Input
Amino acid sequence: MEELLSSPYLPPLVATLLIIALFPLVAGYMVLAERKVLADLQVRLGPMRVGPYGALQPLADALKLMLKEDIIPSGADKWVFWMAPVLSTFTALSAFAVLPLSDKFYVADVNIGILFILAMSSIGALGLILGGWSSNSKYSLMGSLRAAAQMVSYEVPLGFATVTGIMCAGTLSMQGIIQAQYERGVWGAFDNYLLMLIPTVLFIIAGTAETNRAPFDLPEAESEIVAGFHTEYSGFRFALYFLAEYAAIFVISGICVTLFFGGWLRPFPNVGFLETPLNVGLPVVLFAAIALACIKGATRQIITGFKLGMFGLAGAALLLAALFAVPVINPLIVGLFWFLAKVAVLVYMFIWYRGTFPRFRYDQLMDVGWKWLIPMSLGGLIVNSIAQMLARS
Amino acid sequence: MANPINTFLLTDLLKGLWTTFKNQKPSLVVTEQYPRERPPVMERYRGAPRLNTHPETAETLCISCNLCALACPEQLIVVTSERNPETRRKDLTNFTYDTSRCMFCGLCEDACPVDALELTQDFEMATFTREGQIWDRQMLEEGPLPTEYRH
Amino acid sequence: MPDTILAPPPPPPAPEATLLDSNELVINMGPQHPSTHGVLRVILKLDGETVLGAECVIGYLHRGVEKIAENRTYQQFAPYVDRMDYVAAVSNGLGYCMAVEKLLDVEIPERAQAVRVILAEINRIASHLLWLGTHALDIGAITPVFLCFREREEALKIFEKYCGARLTTHAFRIGGLQYETHDTFEKDCLAFCDLMDEKLKEYHALLTGNRIWVNRTKGIGILNAADCKDYGVTGPVLRAAGEKWDIRKAQPYSGYEKYDFDIPTAENGDTFDRYMVRMEEVTQSCRIVRQAVEGLPAGPIKGKIGKVIKPPPGEAYVSIEAPKGELGYYVVSDGSLNPYRLRVRPPSFVNLGALDKMCRGSLVADVVAIIGTIDIVLGEVDR
Ligand code: SF4
Ligand code: SF4
Output
């Protein structure tokens, strides 16, 4: 027992299991958040019926997807059809292994962390391509062809932007990148006299395309090719694709936060007097406000169960606020708080684009990728290296 | 678009983003949570039919003239009556109205000379059977039972 | 598969053709497809993503409306016309009533005419709003559709308040109007116009300048004026090609000659121009409504017309400017209670004929944009 507890494999194992167990739930709530935010942008309410303010909608959706009949088209290539969503989900989730969720909580800190993530997300594209191809449907095939072309071309500017970030930090390890930003005393995005903003913006744009999100959601462009590569998928396999998509969004936002927005560092990491207000004050106030909002929402619920649920949520938020106020626990969780908060802001932006922009056309997408993003990201790389050299000398 | 600075700074896209961002104000939400709050319909709304009765005597106002049945494009109204030997008038015996075929055009209502047939503001007419859609005289006079929802 | 569209004629199929051959790909878009606006089926012939030809298969919503007319009296048929272009039911009703009135040769009181114009113009705005929302949705912008429906709701509320129904209004009767305007009619209409003027800015901010929108619409689905005439295309599609043809100006009816308004036109005849023309038409419709409401005369609302409508034998053709183009009603009477024959010239159906011409050489993504820009309503195409 003693041996087991002190084993170096234990923390990563626990973290892995936690991530695998929790991520479907997180993805479900990301979907709910997306629906709610989209509804907000579109003067609607979004899901309201399952649970108070639709809070249990993800569970209902998950249940529905699991109980649905699993249809495999008769012309489909069965094995590939089975494996494709698994491949997508597997690669998307395995990228979590090196994501530095906080200074304490991560699975592994390998010295090629960022390369590993990029490699995994490239293999993820294979899942979409295979899924569309094996469905033996024309719409799916078109979707997967689009996915292939899009992912390959947007990988390049994404890579250049990443390289710029890595160059600025001087290391490939994810924790190292954050450490470097701490030492330089500034977030990656604002480094090099703000020149790093160029790769930051390009990374966000290319990342949107890489995760097939609007306005670059051509592989699943609903109004053109029905549902693209997952037209023929239903039930649990469809849910897996969904999971993969949201995992990819999380991962891309996570890399972006790590490279350019200081990872789990708080804003102004080197300004000492902000330590207490930002690391203790802000989370406490935030969760207390959430608790208050829940209590206020509870009074509007007519159904007793929903009311109790809202009070329960308020209690949970209060508990979190209390945890952040305890000096022993605070340093353990505050990193996670900042990381997730930053990721949440990025995810909100992803949803915001989706609610605003029309979709690109296939050839225009290629134009943007090859004629604009790649030259600009190359330019960003060169400009930043010159700036860095000047700063060093 | 013509201005290269605007093109580079994505002003057009930011304008759109700002527009959607502004729409997030909670007071702008227009959703009506239907079964919970029933939307008010206008006074002239043409909904569920009703056969009016005299408010005091509770006798039907219908004089069995059959004009509504003749006016209806779908021919879904059947008026049955028998002649009362004493008053020499026609007495209404039954009145069926097939709401499943009705398109609520209001022609029957317009045709009725004594305003006996009326289309009301009630719009919840779903039933579990097709037969339930055919309303007889009693249903038309008393109106459908108000729907109750459990949440 | 009919091979009439498939020009140039397809090469003989390779033995054991598979999906991955470099042959052309034929796909069925619809009748169950998210963006064919109902039950339109388009057979697309593709080379990669490039469209080589498109053929529409219609009739999934065919109800035989013209035949129904022969078995209904003139009044009884009026509610059926609402169900053709259900997005612009008021315009349909107006066209039909005017055709029968022409047969009967009755004079419509001024007040009735003005109210008809007001409602028809509000209906034009409502129809354009629905078009804008779904068109934007086809191109991938998912927010405008909700905003458009929010404004359209106000228009439908005016209809509901006036005549008791929101969509299939049956607002007009042969000879005039059935209902006197409600108390707040004028106020509601003016408030709606003000609202539209304000909200149009929001749509412009969301779409007009947006580079993605411009890229997706400029130069797509070009149909020049000569082609429009060849295909008989009317309405905003024709006007976007530079032809200043609007029946409200060319052959004024129902008192349109009294109002001061412009016919918006554009030059290129592409999707973007059609978008701009329709947006401008909304503004012009607001202008008409404002003038009509301010000059709303008092007086009777129904012309001299009996309870039984029995036109003398003869025929009449009336065309009006519906939101989608020229809407014509041709009624033949044999002197009985029912029309002997009724024929509709539906703008959507005729405009849809140009789809193949507009699609050739574009991409799949453009096809949905083009279907959206023609602004079809399948109820009217199939009748
Ligand atoms: S509303 Fe119209 S369809 Fe319905 S019964 Fe009356 S006349 Fe017939
Ligand atoms: S028209 Fe009126 S009075 Fe005559 S039968 Fe119908 S409901 Fe009765």
Notes: The pocket of iron/sulfur cluster (ligand 1) is lined by residues B 71-74, 76-77, 102-108 (CB under 6 Å). Helices of chain B lie at 4-9, 11-22, 67-71, 107-111, 137-142.
